[in-house]
Amino acid sequence: MSETITLGRSGRLVLPKSLRDRLKLAEGSCLDLEVDGSVIHLRASEEKSVKLVKAGGLLVATGFPKQADIAKAVRAERTGREGVLAEPAKRARKRKA
Predict the structure, then answer these.
(1) Where are the beta strands (DSSP E) in the chain?
(2) Domain ranges for the chain
(3) Which residues pair with 59 in a beta bridge?
(4) How do residues 15-48 score in pLDDT, each as one tens digit?
(5) Which of the 8 DSSP states describes residue 29?
(6) pTM of the prediction?
């Protein structure tokens, strides 16, 4: 696969969605970078992404990459949980209407 991408503001690269999907990359995924002369090699990192798992009724963060944003992981988990908890109330309101 060969594509041309353009550097964005602050030198950021945006990987095409098809490539992110193929490599199962998401926001917060780590990539290993190696420079060989004028060639840049990017590899999906073997590091795990931060995940929240239940242990003894508590949420425990696991798989910390070096620059993990724990607060962001907790907010994402809470947002998902709030959506699930709010769903029965939404269905009830629809039935009444």
Answers:
(1) 31-36, 39-44, 51-55, 58-62
(2) 9-44, 51-96
(3) 54
(4) 889 888 888 888 777 788 899 999 988 888 776 5
(5) -
(6) 0.43
